[in-house]
Amino acid sequence: MISPFFKIILRMLHNYQIYIKGLVQGVGFRPFIYKMASEMELTGSVYNTSDGIYILIQSSETNKNTFIDKIITNKPAIAEIEEISVKETNRIIPENNKFSIVTSDFGNNSITRISPDIAICNDCLNDVKKQVHRLHYPFINCTHCGPRFSIIKSLPYDRDSTTMNSFKMCPICQTEYNDTKDRRFHAQPIACNTCGPVYRMKNSQGIYTEDYNTILSSIKECIIKGGIVTLKGIGGYNLICNATNPNAIKRLRKIKMRPQKPFAVMFYDKSQAEKYVFINNDELQLLTSWRRPIVLLRERQKICSNGLNDGYRTLGVMLPYMLIHHDLLESKEIEAIVITSANSDGEPIITQNNEARCKFEQTTDLVIEYNRDIYNREDDSVTHVISGKSRIIRRSRGYVPEPIRSDLHVEGIFAVGADLNNAFAIGKNKDIILSQYIGNMQEKENQIFFETSMFHFFQIFRFSPKQIICDSHPEYFSTAIATKYSIQHSVPLLHVQHHHAHAAAVMAEYNLNEDVLAVCLDGTGYGDDGCSWGGEIIKCNYTSYNRLTHIEYMPLPGGNAVSKEPWRMVISYLHDKSGIRTLYPDDFIERIGKKKINIIEMMMDRNVLSPLSSSAGRLFDTVSSLMGICDINTYQSEAAIKLEQLADIECKEFYPINRSNPLDFKNLVKQIAKDYQLGVPISVLSSRFHNTLVYSLAHTIHYFSKKTNINKIILSGGVFQNKLLSNLLIKQLTAKKLHVFFPSKIPCNDGSIAIGQIAIAAALKKNK
User: Fold this and answer.
1) Domain end: 197, 231, 257, which one?
2) Which residue in the list 11, 15, 48, 618 is annotated as catalytic?
3) Keywords for this entry (predicted)?
4) Is 30 a catalytic residue?
5) 376 a catalytic residue
6) Within 10 Å of residue 48's Cβ, how many Cβ atoms?
């Protein structure tokens, strides 16, 4: 018989159902809940579903509130909570005074968030030195770290749905996997020396070895001697060499067919990196985060005399994210390694063992593979810090497939993005899920990569397209893919203007469902008038846009050829059709030659192959080539990037702006040409150019802000990857009391176009 006292206690207890949505699976969330509930002596259970985690507890209201507060405050570092809902429930909770983890329920078609791949954690770095069955085991992982997206094939996220399905757990791993108190409870990639994946290396006799210490010693010896190693990473194969050896780097460039573009460098830790780069607190937080991206940092001194990042004052830096990286660099025998994707420049990173052997066995000194498949290929992500916040340049490993949470219903919308820096996106409920970086869609291999990844996303996220969105450019390869799919599957197709999509992507990140002013600066985007746009200020919301003003149109002599040959734009800006003799700098004439210059002038005079463009990217190219910095782009935006790199950041000088038409920069270019001829240092001229451009933009934006009574300003487009430009403009606009929205979770370049395309389509559908 229950005593009166306990009857009172029972009346005070309630049964609660707590639903948590977000990144809560594959990150140790259920063991965390179990431990905390047990410590609070709560009765109940926790279980996974397709769309999140459910917790049932029997508790007083006070304890329930304390429990929820602790969940929010003490959650695992990698976990992200998007939503918590609590309600009383009539569901029966067993009266055993215990809390338990129960069988998952994946009965519906909803999905939960999938974790990106996570850098090895400190606990695993300690375990590998202490746990007998994992001593020096290179693929050690737990619920707090290890491969996730790169190995998953379908939901629910369990071992059978990943490329670990062929590795049967040994009894020790199985015990850890089943132990709710163990850090490896339900860690799907759990493995050890007995039952997990292994590295393999072919020796000089053609015999394979799987001994990790032998392989590690061979890699170290090879790198120290100046060799190049092909090493299988998380999202694909990498090529690595000694970052202090210019001959090794020269050879690496030949293998990759990458003559100029800088390489990223991996250091063992912060103290090692700080010998060569400056790192502020925001950059350190990004550099040491579990995402482990490449972070662009200002150089303190050169780590290599030549060949690594010539013409740059910044260096791409990353820290180890796999055990093998730690083991290679821990002894400090190797100061740092160059680490780059194993591919020819512009092609997708290689993931298959056979392909890696075929392509690199003869050209590199060692090929190191392992016997777990990579299902979803990923490059290393590239980031930097602008205005005190992390900004993404290339979004891939460590970020994908994290969604952008929208206030719009986006279910069933598939967006193919743009052609450069391509990434596609799918809509699930209110989540926009952006793919990993695909690359330039003009490359046939990247088109195959696109289609393979597209079907992987459809499968993993249980997605079926109900509408397809593409760019309005009629000649984009992505547009052709969208058109083909639309016809084959009878799915409606919507074309979206490029810069409207740029603006809408940032609106989606910040959930700005209202009129904004968007400043879109990039290389090119198909305009409504048939011209190439790229220096735009538009008033827009999700469903409409109005072009308020733009950089003055200039001819593109040779059309698309100008993106490869910036010197053509110098002639475009300086040539006077009225017959007045054009004054080109002497060394420009010497470099390009009078014959070429005359041909381009004739093309423009006769309006032959000289379409008009308002491109900000081409303006940067003009100034860069004018001063002899870069006449030929060997990689995307080379001229513009090198122009920024040479600027004197302490210089505050600027040229007078044209107040009647602040975005007409012909006189600015002529003034720079004159001062360059007079011998003014390039560093000063680059700073004057940046400062003048910023003042011109700020003046124009402020004018239209007052005219439209809109004070929310969006900055988007690849030109805003320019750290100097963006920092200066954000500072000026903020000083004018304007609210600036600059992308942080997504790239400002074309890598985010698909997000804007989905947001626009969802809003148009809602308004029908």
Assistant:
1) 197
2) 48
3) Hydrolase, Ligase, Metal-binding, Transferase, Zinc, Zinc-finger
4) yes
5) no
6) 24
